[in-house]
Amino acid sequence: MGGLQKKKFERGAATNYITRNRARKKLMLSLPDFRRLCILKGIYPHEPKHKKKVNKGSTAPRTFYLMKDIRFLLHEPIVGKFREYKIFVRKLKKAYGKTEWSTVERLRENKPTYKLDHIIKERYPSFIDALRDIDDALCMCFLFSTFARTGKCHVQTIQLCRRLTVEWMNYVIASRSLRKVFISIKGIYYQAEVMGQLITWLVPYQFSHDHPTDVDYRVMATFTEFYTTLLGFVNFRLYHSLNLLYPPKVCRAPKLIPGLQSILLFLIEQKLSALSASLARVVSSAEEEEAELDQFPEDMEKMEAREKEQKQQEAQRKMFQGLKFFLNREVPRESLAFVIRCFGGEVSWDKSICIGSTYDVTDETITHHIVDRPNIDKQYINRYYIQPQWVYDCVNAKILLPVEDYFIGVTLPPHLSPFVEEKEGDYVPPEKLKIMALQRGENPGVNEEEEEDEEEEEDDNADEEEDDEEEEEEEAEEKNLKEMEDQRSQGKSLQVKVTPGKVKVENPARLEQEEKAEEKRLAIMMMKKKEKYLYDKIMFGKKRKVREANKLAAKRKAHDDAEKAKKKKARK
Amino acid sequence: MAAARRLKRVAVSQPGFLTLKPSRDPSDLVSGRRKRVNKNKKKNWNKHSDINDVEEFLEDVRHQERTTGGLLSEKSDDSLFFLDVGQPKKAEQKAEESVEGKKRKGKASRPLRIDLILQHDSLVPPAKDVLSYQQPNAKKLRRIAQKAEQLAAKGVVPRRQRQLLNRRPVDRTAKKSATEANNNPDREYYDMWGQESKESADPWYLQQTGKRQVKRPEKLNEKPSVLPAVEVIAPGGSYNPDFLSHQALLQEAHDVEVKKQKQEEKLERQLAFNKEDKATEETVLREQVEGLVEEENEDEEAAADDEEEDVAVGAIALSEKKTERQRKRERAEKIKEQQRLADRKQTDQQQQLFQLRSIKASIRQREQKTKSNQIKRKAKQEAQKSQPRRLGKLKFQPQDLEVQLSNELAGSLRRLKPEGSILKDRFKSLQKRNLIEPRDRAKFKRRLKVKYVEKRAFKEIT
């Protein structure tokens, strides 16, 4: 009794949220400016749990922001800059209207600008935070750098994006951190491992732009504005972590003549973008000693395993070392040059395509010539003529694949996605199985298809085979017995012979396995009812998966057979 | 008068003075009778003295100076006279030539008469304007300059110059960097995460002057969605895909398409014309006589309603006061009822003792149910995290799947035709991760109506 009357929507959820329009009014900004500010500061709309409560009884769909976020925005110094810019535009318009060109010039000179550095520092307090969020930045920058300069966005933005992406690619090359490449119908996906973070980005094909109308370019440009700043700072840090100069410089750069500086700078930029030269270091590479891992006395086995793994990785990173590639003019130069250089290969192209070619077609030391046309006129004997997919497939398989499947005019094996990770029991396409076999060091014979089939079986029923072997042994014994019986029935005297006993060779590995299997069986027997139920369920699921995989394999085989038959017919 | 006469006498008495004008008779000067005037007054002196002769002389001097540039008497004989030896022949020829030249050139070469009139014909040079040559404080300035020269010879630099030399050069680049745009392609970066800058000043001061950064709420660092920034396309999206994965992708795209079509069909069905709603003769007639027939029935009904109402009103009016007895009975009945309910409750509770097992079972059941509900809710919440939220008027529309049909697949990288737009993909990805709200393109609203008018020329033809 008594006290003030409680009013609706004055506490609780209704006060925690604010609609977009009210937030805009509170900040005294126009809607585009408000949107820009939110994007730059990383403040996103929020869907309330109880819309009706928040919306003061109405159920109309609205965009809500958290009140605290907006209050945080009030402190942002950039808001003031936005207002200044608004006034600047107004003055400029006025000056234009009055055709006061000197005023226009003066205003232009004093155009208000703002920096995003403090926002980056605030949003990413540590470097690793920034690195985790770099995927988006890379995608956006690569996308914008391929835009035509047609006024959809500022030319300067395009140039900056191009510069940053080139820097990034050069870093990846210098650090040898590329892991996967996938050529899709959309664009090329790359994955690199930088400082323990897996970073994926998507690069569009060149000249593949239709400008969709339902995309808000202003929003995208704002994101790009933020991401260019972020990527620049990340690049700087990454370059310095490798003792590289930033802004990057090409090794063996020509001495600068004062008059020609600007032209030379431009040339250097071009050279960088050609991706064919290595970068200049702060400390020359010879002096740099390779850091070795500290040795810990305990866990020798683990240490050895780790070392082995590391060695393997090192070998993978130098996969193309010593190989000399030449790119024909019809292949995507930048992508291939990037990938080849990432794995230590040397690469060149025709002088007329791009700056930075290091050797000619006629060079006798070229080992691989990458061609993407059905035939080529002049061929050198001492080099392989291969299709570009070989490079990408090698990267994904982490070994040098046999070149025979990728010669000119040969139907290529499918390009598999390296981003799919098969779990146990999943269907694995035969091509991948073959690659896996190659990775294990097995050499598939000439008759590939049979091998494939065998492998499939192997993989599918690995355990069964073991059983089969046992059975075979038993069968052999039985056979012996049967023969003896036959002979006896035929009335012949048994050839009783005492042969010296053979020591049965016991395979310790095998014994161990058997023991393990036995233990497992016992463990299953000892399970509680509840657990058993769960276990059965899991096993059933696995079996189902295997069954499905088998089904797919059968389908594939049928498809292949049909194809083969077709081919044969065609040949006839 | 005497003075003037004296002056004239002086000039004329000078040897070799020539007058240009014929001198007047000296008798003129003394013509008529002399008027006797007392010249002891200045006024009379001024009035009655004759100065004509002096003025004439001065006039003559000025005239001489104007026309010849000096007094004739002072000129040498050579400049005044020459020996006349007849007209030279050449001069004649020249004259002829000049005549011819004149004819040729015409009037254009002759100066205009007005110019000739306005020409300065006096040989006396114009008087110099002394003021234009004078310099104020010339003496002082000269002295200062002398002193400065002396100091310079000694090697002492004056203070003003020293100040200028000591001034720092204006840093043009600093200003440039202040106005440097964010998207400047040559912009510089630095080590942002290198060293933590320590706040040197008093924190209270920084806060009060608005110089300290406001702390970012922790909650803002959470991502609004758990989806990765770059979702890699399914393996069937390879440019040279494996057969089965390509089929799987096609199937997926097909399913999406079928779903869309079904929705469209449903909408069409709902919007379709219902045959039962079609107007027949009967329905038309019924509509026309609506309200004309069957009036009587309605009247009766209305009457019945009225009666009922009357009764109800009467009942309220008729309600009487209860008697004491009635009240007592009612109270007793109430108590009895309460007692009965309490007894019932007690017995029920006692009975529950025997139902313990079933109760336990039901409780267990309920608990299980809540648990399973909890799990379901958790799972739903987890699934929600990766779902796009409803952030505005529009719902998120997923992008069409990028698919190439089997016959569209290119055999080689060279002939590959890229599918879809990455720009759109990125935009949709941002929407999917709840970073921006889905939005329609703003529609163009015409403020003023467009009026179409046929031109007269066009009208005439039609």
Explain what you see:
The complex is a heterodimer of chains A (572) and B (462). In chain A, 52% of the residues lie in helices and 7% in strands. Chain A has 572 residues and is an alpha/beta fold. Among the domains of chain A are: 13-75, no CATH class; 81-114; 117-274, no CATH class; 315-422, Rossmann fold, CATH 3.40.50.10190. In chain A, the strands form three sheets. Chain A has a four-stranded parallel β-sheet with strand order 7-6-8-9, with helices on one face. A three-stranded antiparallel β-sheet of chain A has the order 3-4-5. A two-stranded antiparallel sheet of chain A has the order 1-2. In chain A, helix 3 (31-41) runs parallel beside helix 12 and helix 10 (134-145) crosses helix 11. The radius of gyration of chain A is 34 Å and the shape is extended. Chain B has 462 residues and is mainly α. The longest helix of chain B is centred in the last third of the chain and has 31 residues, at 324-354. Residues 1-9, 25-29 and 97-103 of chain B have low confidence and may be disordered.
Give keywords.
heterodimer; A: three-stranded antiparallel beta sheet; 21 helices; extended; B: mainly alpha; 19 helices; rRNA processing (chain A); PES (chain A); ribonucleoprotein complex binding (chain A)
Gist?
Chain A contains 21 helices and nine strands. With about 575 residues, chain A is an alpha/beta fold. Among the domains of chain A are: about 15-75, no CATH class; about 80-115; about 115-275, no CATH class; about 315-420, Rossmann fold, CATH 3.40.50.
Blueprint of the fold:
The complex is a heterodimer of chains A (572) and B (462).
Chain A: H1 13-16, E1 17-19, H2 20-27, H3 31-41, H4 51-54, E2 64-66, H5 67-73, H6 77-97, H7 101-109, H8 117-123, H9 127-132, H10 134-145, H11 155-175, E3 178-183, E4 187-194, E5 197-204, H12 217-241, H13 261-274, H14 300-317, E6 324-327, H15 333-342, E7 346-349, E8 368-370, E9 384-386, H16 389-397, H17 430-440, H18 448-460, H19 462-489, H20 508-525, H21 529-571
Parallel strand pairs in A: 6-7, 6-8, 8-9
Antiparallel strand pairs in A: 1-2, 3-4, 4-5
Helix pairs in contact in A: 3-12, 6-7, 10-11, 10-12, 11-12, 11-15, 17-18
Chain B: H1 2-13, H2 26-29, H3 42-48, H4 52-68, H5 77-80, H6 89-105, H7 113-118, H8 130-133, H9 138-154, H10 159-166, H11 172-178, H12 203-208, H13 243-271, H14 281-288, H15 295-318, H16 324-354, H17 356-385, H18 422-432, H19 456-461
